[in-house]
Amino acid sequence: MVVNNRSTAWGNFDEHQPPAPELIDDCVHCGFCLPTCPTYVLWGEEMDSPRGRIYLMDLVGHGAADFDQTLVRHFDTCLGCMACVTACPSGVRYDELLESMRFQIERHHTRPWRDRAFRRAIFELFPYPGRLRLAALGGWVYQRSGLARLVRASGLRGRLPARLRALESLVPPTRLRDLLTRPPTRVAAVGERRRTVALLTGCVQRVFFSEVNAATVRTLAAEGCEVLIPRGQGCCGALSTHVGRRREAVERARHTITTFEAFDVDTIVVNVAGCGSAMKEYGRLLADDPAWADRAATFAAKVRDVTEVLAELAPRAPRHPVRARVAYHDACHLGHAQRVRAEPRAVLRGIPGLEVVDVPETEVCCGSAGVFNLLEPEAAEALGRRKVDNIRSLAPDAVVTANPGCLLQIRRHLGEHANLPLLHPVELVDASIRGRGLPGGT
């Protein structure tokens, strides 16, 4: 059966953007994806591999399977890291298939009430920076009061449910000045203006990693970019898309487009891999909406990761040496989903004295994967420990990656007392331009 209209029902799928049969048929079951799939690496189960999950989609499409708990579980355990897309010699668009499948699951499957409640709590908090700041303030009190040490020393944390234990462990050290920081709305280019850009400040990024945003603005300005930071920007919808909450994702995409359309810029700059990946796909997300399809495609065409922008611009600001050995970890939604791999490495290697080394098993996810490390904490922990073991084998002076979720995940598994700096690539470039040496990191 071949269905060319992406809004045609088939089998047990409804008519709204089901997984396309022609994309399913692209999979020739060669198995090249298996060694790169985190869940297959962990468990060796066929149905927890991309090949197996595509087979399950085909069964649903032919009416031979339904959205029961067993089937849904195989898709809940998928990290959506897209390592399989990179590995596939047939060009299977597993990213599109998974997104469509998760939208279908959320419409046709009723989750247990505890799962629904936990997911709702996540999405009532993380996409709202104001609420996240209040939660972070609570985290600051929790850490500074000694309560965190007491919870851990008493063994109470080990008795928490796995999801709550993961949430507690991922809270980063919080500084009050970061919670109170508000970026300017415009920063002029240093010297002759080469480009006008608008910056997405992110949700988790602006609350817990405001120093990354500050470094991004300083670096872009130093390289001749006028930087605009729109007020009123909210969540881009990346997390919602990642777990199948389509209506929410669409609403947030429309709001983001409307906010940034008001500014006449050459480029929309993102310094969060997951956000950039979602925003570059707005054209596909809104393709069926005549009022938004063209606007979304125009917006998406302007989106660039900050390392792409820096790689495109010939360096103008002098770089000072940063004498250090850094382990570069490919954030999945930058390396696999956006296929941006060479640019961050080139930008880092442009810093005098900096040695950049790749983490072994670079294609395997660290286990962060949006909110996967909260929803599936056991698998995420196994992957996090595996990633940290590979990092430690390099004996680096710092770890560099382009996604806040990866930074939090790696920090957790390095241990509470680890003093290894964890940095975004732009922080190193900023430090080099300013002559500051290796930053301390998060």
TrEMBL record:
GO MF annotation, one: 4 iron, 4 sulfur cluster binding
N-terminal signal peptide: none
E.C. numbers: 1.1.99.14
Domain 4Fe-4S ferredoxin-type: from-to ranges: 19-47, 69-97
Cofactor: [4Fe-4S] cluster
Free-text comment on the cofactor: Binds 2 [4Fe-4S] clusters.
Enzyme's top EC category: oxidoreductase
The keyword ATP-binding is assigned to this record: no
DNA-binding in keyword set: no
Domain of life: Bacteria
Catalytic activity: glycolate + A = glyoxylate + AH2; (R)-lactate + A = pyruvate + AH2
Keywords assigned by UniProt, alphabetized: 4Fe-4S, Electron transport, Iron, Iron-sulfur, Metal-binding, Repeat, Transport
Alphabetized Gene3D superfamilies for the sequence: Alpha-helical ferredoxin
InterPro entries the UniProt entry points to: 4Fe4S_Fe-S-bd, 4Fe4S_Fe_S_CS, Cys_rich_dom, Glc_ox_4Fe-4S, Helical_ferredxn
Functional note: Component of a complex that catalyzes the oxidation of glycolate to glyoxylate.
Protein name from the UniProt record: Glycolate oxidase iron-sulfur subunit
Originating organism: Thermasporomyces composti
Phylogenetic placement of the source organism: Bacteria, Bacillati, Actinomycetota, Actinomycetes, Propionibacteriales
